[in-house]
C-alpha cells in the first residue's frame, strides 16, 4: 500500500483529502493543533507537524517515506496576510518550499493547492496560461509558493482553486452554514455582488486531486465549480435550495466592507484543461447544495 503524508488535515480540504484517500493508501495526517477533529471522525494516524520548520518536515518524511505529500496547510485569512506578513509568509511560502525540498529528497510527488488570487480579477475566469498579477499579500504568497515548487522539483501537481465550501470536521468557517443559520435566525446579512467566482465543493476538489495523483499528471491545473456567479447570487441560491426567504440578503459593493486587502472582483478559474484530461466532478451547484441540505445542514 502506497504512503501519503497529508498536511493541514484539520481544515476543510484536509479533512476531505483524508477521507477520500484513507481506504486505498497508508496515511499520516498532520497539523499544528493538539486535538484533531479529522482524526476523531476518521480514526487515522495523526501527528503534529509545523511545515514552517524544515527539520520537522524532513525528519517526518525520512521516517515515514511517503510516495506522495499533499499540502492542504495554508494561512487563508486574506486580510490577516496583510496584518501578519511574516507569519503568513512562513506558512504559505516557506512551508510549501520545505515540503518540496523534502519530497524531492525522498523522490516523492507533491500536490500543492494554490488560488485564483494570483490573478488581479480584471478579466476572469482565468486559464492556467493567463498572466498572473496578484493584488494582495495572500495572492503574492500563493504565487511565490508556486514558483519555488516549480524551481525545486519536477514531480509536482499544483491545483489552483477558489471559494472552497462544503461540510468539514467543524463548522466554524462554513459559508453555507453561516448563510443558512443567519437567515433562519432572522438576521440581515450583507453580501457583495461584485465578486465573481466559481465556488468549489471541497469533496469534489479532493476527488480531482486523487485523479491527478493516480494519473501522475504533473504540472499546474485549475479546478473550480461548474457555476460562475457572484457571492450575492451564491447566497440567494443557498437560501432558495434550503427553502429560506431571501428577503434579508442585502447586496453591497466590496468597497463598502472597507477590507484591508484588495479583492479580485472578476476571479474564478476555467476548467477546460482538466475536464479534457480526466473525468473530474462538475456537478451543478444547485445539486451539490441539495445534497448538503439532505445531509442535515
General description of the model:
This protein is α/β, with parallel strands linked by helices and 297 residues long. The chain folds into two domains: 3-164 and 200-222, 3-Layer(aba) Sandwich (Rossmann fold); 174-198 and 228-267 and 283-292, UDP-galactose 4-epimerase, domain 1 (Alpha-Beta Complex). It has helices at 12-21, 37-42, 54-64, 78-83, 85-106, 137-152, 175-184, 202-215, 231-241, 272-277, 285-294; strands at 3-7, 26-31, 46-48, 68-71, 109-115, 156-161, 164-165, 189-192, 196-197, 200-201, 219-222, 229-230, 249-252. Strand 1, helix 1 and strand 2 form a beta-alpha-beta unit. The longest helix is centred in the first third of the chain and has 22 residues, at 85-106. It is globular and about 55 Å long.
What is this structure, in a nutshell?
With 297 residues, the protein is of the alpha/beta class. Helix content is 41%, strand content 17%. It has 2 domains: 3-164 and 200-222, NAD(P)-binding Rossmann-like Domain (Rossmann fold), CATH 3.40.50.720; 174-198 and 228-267 and 283-292, UDP-galactose 4-epimerase, domain 1.
For the structure shown, list the relevant keywords.
11 helices; UDP-galactose 4-epimerase, domain 1; 17% strand; 2 domains; 41% helix; two-stranded parallel ribbon; 297 residues; alpha/beta; Rossmann fold; single chain; 7-stranded parallel beta sheet
The percentage of residues in β strands lies in: 15-25%
Total E-strand runs: 13
Which stretches are low in confidence, meaning pLDDT under 50 for 5 or more residues running? none
CATH architecture of the largest domain: 3-Layer(aba) Sandwich
The N- to C-terminal Cα distance equals 35 Å
Domain count: the total is 2
List the strand order in the largest sheet. 3-2-1-4-5-6-11
User: Which term fits the overall shape?
Assistant: globular
The level 1 CATH classification of the largest domain is Alpha Beta
| CATH superfamily descriptor of the largest domain | NAD(P)-binding Rossmann-like Domain
Structural class: alpha/beta
Number of helices: 11
CATH T-level topology of the largest domain: Rossmann fold
Helix content: 40-55%
Order of helices and strands: EHEHEHEHHEHEEHEEEHEEHEHH
Characterize the main sheet: 7 strands, parallel
Query: How large, in whole angstroms, is the Cα Rg?
Result: 19 Å
Amino acid at each position: 500500500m502506497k504512503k501519503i503524508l497529508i498536511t493541514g488535515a484539520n481544515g476543510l480540504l484536509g479533512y476531505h483529502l483524508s477521507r477520500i484517500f484513507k481506504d486505498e493508501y497508508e496515511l499520516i495526517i498532520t497539523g499544528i493543533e493538539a486535538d484533531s477533529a479529522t482524526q476523531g471522525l476518521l480514526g487515522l494516524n495523526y501527528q503534529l507537524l509545523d511545515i514552517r520548520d524544515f527539520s520537522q518536515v524532513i525528519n517526518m518524511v525520512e521516517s515515514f517515506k511517503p510516495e506522495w505529500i499533499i499540502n492542504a496547510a495554508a494561512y487563508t485569512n486574506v486580510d490577516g496576510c496583510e496584518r501578519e506578513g511574516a507569519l503568513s509568509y512562513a506558512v504559505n511560502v516557506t512551508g510549501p518550499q520545505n515540503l518540496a525540498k523534502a519530497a524531492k529528497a525522498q523522490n516523492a510527488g507533491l500536490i500543492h493547492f494554490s488560488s485564483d488570487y494570483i490573478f488581479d480579477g480584471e478579466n476572469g475566469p482565468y486559464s492556467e496560461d493567463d498572466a498572473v498579477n496578484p493584488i494582495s499579500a495572500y495572492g503574492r504568497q500563493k504565487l511565490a509558493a508556486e514558483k519555488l515548487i516549480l524551481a525545486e522539483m519536477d514531480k509536482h501537481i499544483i491545483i489552483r482553486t477558489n471559494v472552497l465550501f462544503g461540510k468539514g470536521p467543524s463548522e466554524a468557517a462554513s459559508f453555507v452554514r453561516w448563510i443558512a443559520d443567519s437567515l433562519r435566525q432572522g438576521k440581515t446579512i450583507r453580501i457583495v455582488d461584485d465578486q465573481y467566482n466559481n465556488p468549489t465543493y471541497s469533496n469534489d476538489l479532493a476527488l480531482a486531486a486523487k485523479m491527478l495523483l493516480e494519473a501522475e499528471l504533473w504540472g499546474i491545473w485549475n479546478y473550480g465549480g461548474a457555476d460562475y456567479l457572484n457571492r450575492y447570487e451564491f447566497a440567494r441560491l443557498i437560501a432558495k435550495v434550503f427553502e429560506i426567504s431571501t428577503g434579508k440578503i442585502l447586496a453591497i459593493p466590496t468597497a463598502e466592507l472597507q477590507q484591508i486587502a484588495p479583492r479580485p472582483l472578476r476571479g474564478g478559474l476555467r476548467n477546460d484543461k482538466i475536464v479534457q484530461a480526466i473525468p473530474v466532478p462538475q456537478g451543478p451547484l444547485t445539486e451539490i447544495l441539495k445534497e448538503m441540505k439532505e445531509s442535515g445542514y
